[in-house]
Amino acid sequence: MTTATPPAPPRPKDVTEAGRASLEANRRRITRTSYALLAPTIVVMAVIVGYPIVLSVINSFQADARLDPATGFFVTGGFTGLTNYAHWLLQQCSTPAGTAACAQGNLGASFWTATFNTFFFTVITVALETVIGLWMAIIMNRNFRFRGLLRAAVLVPWAIPTAVTAKLFLFIFATAGIINALLGIEVIWGADLWASRFAIIIADTWKTTPFMALLILAGLQLIPEDTYEAARMDGATTVQQFFRITLPLLRPALVVAVLFRTLDALRMYDLPAILTGGGGGRGDATTTLSILVVREIQNTAVNSAAALSTITFLIVFGVAFLFIRVLGANLTGGEKKSKKVAGVR
Amino acid sequence: MKKAMRATAATVTLLLGGLGLAACSSSTTTTPGGTSSTIAKSEYGPITVVQGKDNNGVLPKYAAMWNEKHPDQKVTYKEQSDQADQQLQDLLQNFQQKLTDYDVVSTDVVWTQQLASQGYLQPLTGAYKLDESGVIPAVLNTAKYRGIQYAAPSSTDSQILYYRKDWLGDRPVPKTYEEMFKLCDIAKSKGAGCYSGQYAKYEGLTVNFSEAVNSAGGTVVNDKGEPTLDTPEAKQGLQTLVDAFKDGDIPKAAITYQEEPGRQAFEAGKLMFYTNWPYQYSLTTTGDQSFAKKNPDALGIAGFPGKSSLGGHNWAISQFSKHKGTALEFLKWYQSEEIQKFGVENASSAPVLSSVYEDQDLAKKFPYLPTLKDSLDNAVPRPGSPYYQAVSTAIQNNAYAALQGSKSVDQALTDMSTAIKQASGS
Amino acid sequence: MTTVAGPTTAAAERPVFDDRAASRVRARRRRAAGSSVRTGIQAALIVIWCLLPAYWMLITGFRRSDTVYETTLLPTTPTFDNFIQAFNPARNQLGRALLNSFGIGVLVTVIALVVGVSAAYAIARLNFPGKGLIMGAVLGASMFPGVALLTPLFSLFTQLNWQGSYQSLIIPYIAGALPLTVWTLNSFFREMPWELEEAARIDGCTAAQAFRIVILPLAAPAVFTTAILAFIGSWNEYLLASVLSNTQTQTVTVAIGNFVGSQPREIPYATTMAAGSVVTIPLIILVLIFQRRIVAGLTAGGVKG
Known about the structure:
Chain A has helices at residues 20-59, 83-89, 111-141, 147-159, 162-172, 178-183, 193-221, 225-233, 238-266, 270-275, 289-298, 302-327; strands at residues 66-67, 74-75, 92-95, 98-101. Chain A is mostly helical.
């Protein structure tokens, strides 16, 4: 499995005067082993993700190629400082007469709407997916006859390729589609301000809740049945068991699941792109930050798109940072916490 | 595992070596290629021809026909994705890398200017000059940038009017939007919507907006690509659509229509008039859910009630091709009458030569051809610009907001003008 | 019927020795009878929620392309045509794409798990400087808009002459799977009873052996879940594959994305939905088999308790 042989961690009894030197050697060995174990991960991530990110950040300070009015051909833009960032954050567009406020219809003008949409979708979908996912996981973890069937069914939405899911919901939410036919209504899901947002939330929740449920289920399976047994002996109700045993013990798995869902949702692209094309309302009711990035790349303004990608990255980074600070202080390292169950008496 | 690690290490070294190159290749300062009067012998050889997904499975037939005549300069087709966005992205990525594996590329008519201004296309001048006297003039215009031809039209397209002949009765077929909207009472009495085009927020909205403006006698941009939307004609164009939405003459659902949902609504009897591309004809006449299957006489087709936008594709020669001579021969071959006819018969692709439309046998087999020619004679290209995508985005966003009623027509046109100007400024 | 046998089941199956325990079991059975009805109802709700849209996909696949918009619960003129069309090698190459997706998915899953388990083990178990930084960096990779990685990766792989190669998909997919793999496994490993591993070491196992024999079986549910997520993540990827694959290496998502109707602009809803069913059903069956055989086997060999 691995070529290196990791040594056992130092145990307290090793700490003697004579052992200190060997302890030091041991620690160096552990560090070496650790990096050997981590090397493949670091290398792959650096090449496939690190390199493009660094390149994008560098490019974001370059102006995009400009048309030379004399020849009619494009010439390179050159260094431009923070102009690309101002284009998005301050909606500044450069015109022959200097900078001006971007007009509606220029992508720069959609930045704050897109930011709002992105956060709106993220908060609602992640909240829904967490609650429903938790419920699904708890049911899936129970012992009953059709558990296999249930687990297979839950996997279905997640296993259908996103491209197909998006087309499926486009079809379901079409004006002449099954939803309107079933409910006997004429809602225009593809264009109405709130209906279009709602359609995307439904589609995303349906599609990704299983991801949440599976991760939470794995967490649930690690909670020993004995813990519940003991709690029941002590007369804890089901509700008490949930809040005092399940949730605290589930926290590590739950935090990771919610964290990754949040990061994914903040970069949402396929569903709104296919369902509404980012339209609805005044024309950008379902435009997310990632949709803006793609549109800007299609406008061949790749450096400006790189700036927007970097801004998105910083926003997501900020959210993740806060998230870890608030919810998962001890996620990355340190000593293993003891498995204490809080407050079951 | 050790082996894998060594391989990874080797990979990283390779990648880091490539880093410098990658950082440089984003600059695009190419100038048009030479225009000497003869083409060197070395410019002839096998070529790769790139185009979007082949709907009709017809590419192997084209290849066989060409290869039979040119055994030493065989053509290989490369099929791209079915989606226009991805086709363009694929072209741009290959050109940016200056790859030589694409010799002839199919460009949507609205991309030609963009690709030409990036210096990716061989200008068709000097030894590369083509005889284009047979090509419909408006169609030829889509292949030019700043007066220079950069591509050869391969197929064209124009919207036509599909209507309910059984509802219209003896009344004359409308020739303008105004005439059409005056007939809306008939639609109402049948419980159907009156008219629709494509108004979802996508490229089709640019097509439909331009049609409305052009039909009202306005223009979207001038020859230099500057917006010309501050005219009464342009205002009238957009106003017509906005009013029709408000009155319900265009049904509310049309704001989500791309070509297909609109066709489906028309076939289901929910629309009296529908403007769409000619591809719809065979589907509407044969579809099981279509009124025209039960009653073929109920379907009427006519020229676009005004000025349609032009669709279609052009062939262009890559600046980086090693066999431009053969590529040029391919362009000539494709524009020949024989191949253009073959295209109609086998790939439903509308010919670019006027003469083909006069072929009586062909018109019998494809009844929409004369109608299409009517539309083509009045058709106008979409606003040409090296920044076409950004211009189109500016149009889509503002036209959409106006149609949704969340922005006044005046405000929408003002914003659109400014955004079109800013598209080329940033 | 039970599928994943985790430590939970192992505990539940322990023989009951004393009377108190026996009465406890009886009480639990009584409770279980009442709650199993409630569980059943909730399970049914979940199944309906998950399968209704999927049903619409399946049934749309049986409609003819010209009646695809009808809203009847069963197709009025059912046809198998779409399924046949989806596999028509002259047009859609779905068969080859299925093999590609499957092969790529398996490789990505196996490699990402081996690499990810090593990394997660190191981070959860060993003390070394720079741990937080590495976890942060790995997470940071999931923060950049994926669409913006396309162009740099394309130029990178072009210079390596890797366009249309399998590795140009496999390696980025591994990178895509690693953050979740490392973070999930790390969070689970940290909850493991490592005293048991130490005990095994005292019994003469090497660290690797101790990990494999003691910890891995206990972590099986987590590893298995991570494997499913990695596999489906790679199975579902579209953007990168649409840019970097060719007709030989294209994946299921690209093949389906390239479906065309008989006419340009005609959206091939029916074939797309048929293909959606065709690629999803075997995947579910595979996961079920995998779950039952392999995970059950792994867990059975593990230390109980």
